[in-house]
Amino acid sequence: MKFFSSKWRIAAVAALILLLFLLRPGASRLKSRIVSSISAAVGRPVDIGSVHLRLLPRPGFDLKNLVVYDDPAFGAEPMLRANEVTADLRLTSLVRGRLEIARLDLADPSLNLVHGANGRWNLEALLERTAHTPLAPTGKAKSEPRPGFPYIEATSARINFKNGPEKKPYALTNADFSLWQDSENAWGVRLKAQPFRTDLNLNDTGTLLVNGTWQRAATLGDTPLQFSMEWSRAQLGQLTKFFMGNDQGWRGGVQVDVSLTGTPAKLRVTSNTSVQDFRRYDIASGQPLRLASHCEGQYSSANHAFHELLCTAPVGSGAITLKGDMGLPGSGSYELVLMADDVPASAAMALAQRAKKNLPEDLVAGGTVSGNFTLERKKAAQVRVKGRGEIADFRLASAANKAEIGPETIPFVLTNRSSGGVTSRRTRRTRRNAAPEMRFPEGAHVEFGPFPIAIGRVAGPTTRGWANRAGYGLSVTGEAETAKALRVARMLGLPALQATTEGTAQVDLQVMGSWAGRNGAASGFSGPQVTGTAKLRNVRIAVRGAGGAVEISSADLQLAPDAVRIEKLSAKAADTSWAGSIVMPRGCGTPDACQAHFSLSANQIALGELRDWVSPRPKARPWYRVLESNAQAGTSFLASVRASGRVTTQQLLAQGLAATHVSANVSLDSGKLQISELNADFLGGKHRGEWRTDFRAKPTVCIGSGSVTGISLARLADAMKDQWIAGTANTSYEVKGTCPAEFWTLAEGTLQFDVRDGTLPHISLAEDMGALKVTRFSGKARLQAGRLDIKDAKLDSVGGKFLVSGTASWKRDLDMKLARIPSGGAASAYTITGTLAEPRVIRLAGPETQARLKPEPAK
């Protein structure tokens, strides 16, 4: 009988399909039945735009514009919208005269998941309805009166999340999901999607995979379920941008695996999280770092909290453990205990190398970290934290920087108190320009120290500090050797002078830094800032590219947030003693990005020694290195610095001449030196001029212009050790040439001169006239090839008026011609040859007789 019954059913189904194919009843007349069937299944109003009958490859319907409306309590927007839906009929249901859907395929649907004001999701009612509806499993093996739960599949779906009527920016795109009834009392679901935010441009957010089953129960909270979720191939920077709205600047591949078992009222949660190659966005070097943790706990939907939470992160031979209870993120309720058990300090340093820039790659840390901390907060109550620990036998070394600190034992405590040092009135008066005393931040933070740092032969400064999730701070107070202190600073990634130094300093410094960028932006990462004071004593600094070191006898150094101020400076450079102050802006990145300002004075400056110090000659090399390049290694510090200010000196020595009461505005910009308003008392007169030098040019070029008024020519003769001239003069000059010691013998330029009431004791135009007395001598000379070329200068003397032309060299050789104005007479022209000390005067007009030289006075 069963055999014939089975045959009869098959024949009936075949006949019904043939009848449908021949008659093709209007599908639109079945639309209301389809709408009613789907609406009854989901418990929501349903609307369909149109229905088209499909017979092949299997009987069914093509639905257009399917809309499943939501409960009005969750908003007016539909729960589900799909432009195209394929509904396959269950053939066996046709024999019983029913329309039963075996499979629903939704193309590009949009699903809204809404969290209502009552704390429930719009999907909960649908799940509860499904659990109470006596449906047969999706893959039921035989025909029975109960309708079977259809296999529902969606491709390229979009799942939106809403909080009441407000649509959140979070969404799942390219989502493929399937829903079916797995057995009599169990359902299954699969989901593959990409997390997305509608208000941001995101990529590399990874793929989310969900597989789960749940069983029939009286209430949703008692529904047994088992889910596994995997979030893979997510990039950490894009993940922080997804949750926080901006890229926090961290990089790495994120993998999250979560399993849920139990019921929503009592759910067992297990997770494994890892980040491969964790680093800051601008750090590409170093060994890849993997961060990983395993967490277990129990979640209750009744109070939306995790209980019996236990997270472990193995670190080397030790481990970090977190246990306790906590609410969902944002609830502000937790009671946690954090324990560090024999965590290697080297692991913490590896994390710091991937989180903070400029730490050396060869940085080696030793010691172990142990501690126990408690964090507690009840909703809006104040956070209560406590705990203590230590870093035992802490050591830190960098071979590249030749620096090492430790071993030291560093104690630390966890607290939420805010405190700062108390400064007396007397201390405040003496430190009114210094950085303020370090204060600890509000909220939970770790305080560590105080502990000594042995730097060099001195006892070393004492250090204490704090750290929280936002940043850190250090206070360093005491005496330190400058050379080793700078090497330690570079080892710790702090900005430090790149120069060889010797000496000591009494320091009172504060170091502040943050773990993340400004305003949460990756581009806002900045290095730590050092502020405070340092008193330098007997410090010697080797300046790259200079002819010698700078020796600082004493100076007060102030590190403000915006500038470095050096006051009460007493130093020696280029064999000159200097005093004054220097202000250098901070935060420029490189020496040529900002301009320093100075005010310096010296008792005496020797221009030649200063020139040799600024631009020294290359050192002689041994014979076996003559084939090597003559280029000096590195770039001169003076070629990259930018500075301007005022320089004064009591005496300036140049080429055997001395100027007194000298002052000038000096500007140095990336190897270009400009001296303006150069005022001085010179040879009894006043000098005012301007000079420019380009140290980057090879050879170095000097350009000068200026004027000197009221010169005593007798003083000039004294400086030349030959009383060959007397009187006063005014002159102006423009000169250009290379800047070795022989500048004046190679320079070119022009000279305007005006001599009044002068005397040339070595020259006499006639035997009875005596020394040549000059009423006025004015004209223009051209300087070139180490000589002065004079043309048509005017000479007014007791013996007449003359036009003067000829040359005078720096070697004091003369070749001059004096032409009388007007011409004629016994002596209309003269030539003067020889030297300044022994000139020869020859009369050219009339009988050619040689004017005798005025005899030297008897000694």
How would you describe what is shown here?
- This protein is mainly beta.
- Helix content is 12%, strand content 53%.
- The chain contains eleven helices and 42 strands.
- It is elongated, with a radius of gyration of 47 Å.
Strand content: over 45%
Distance from N terminus to C terminus (CA atoms, Å) equals: 163 Å
Number of helices: 11
Specify the overall morphology: elongated
Number of strands: 42
How can the largest sheet be summarized?
A: 42 strands, mixed
Map the helices and strands.
Elements: H1 2-23, H2 31-42, E1 46-47, E2 50-54, E3 60-68, E4 80-89, H3 91-95, E5 101-107, E6 110-115, H4 122-132, E7 151-163, E8 166-183, E9 186-197, E10 207-215, E11 225-235, H5 236-244, E12 250-263, E13 266-280, E14 291-300, E15 305-315, E16 318-327, E17 334-344, H6 345-355, E18 364-377, E19 384-398, E20 403-415, H7 425-430, E21 445-452, E22 462-467, E23 471-481, H8 482-491, E24 500-514, E25 529-542, E26 549-559, E27 563-573, E28 576-585, E29 596-606, H9 607-614, E30 642-654, E31 657-669, E32 672-682, E33 685-694, E34 701-712, H10 713-719, E35 726-738, H11 743-746, E36 748-760, E37 772-784, E38 787-797, E39 800-809, E40 813-821, E41 829-835, E42 839-843
Parallel strand pairs: 5-7, 6-7, 29-30
Antiparallel strand pairs: 1-3, 2-3, 3-4, 4-5, 4-6, 7-8, 8-9, 9-10, 10-11, 11-12, 12-13, 13-14, 14-15, 15-16, 16-17, 17-18, 18-19, 19-20, 20-21, 21-22, 22-23, 23-24, 24-25, 25-26, 26-27, 27-28, 28-29, 30-31, 31-32, 32-33, 33-34, 34-35, 35-36, 36-37, 37-38, 38-39, 39-40, 40-41, 41-42
Sum up the structure in keywords.
11 helices, single chain, mainly beta
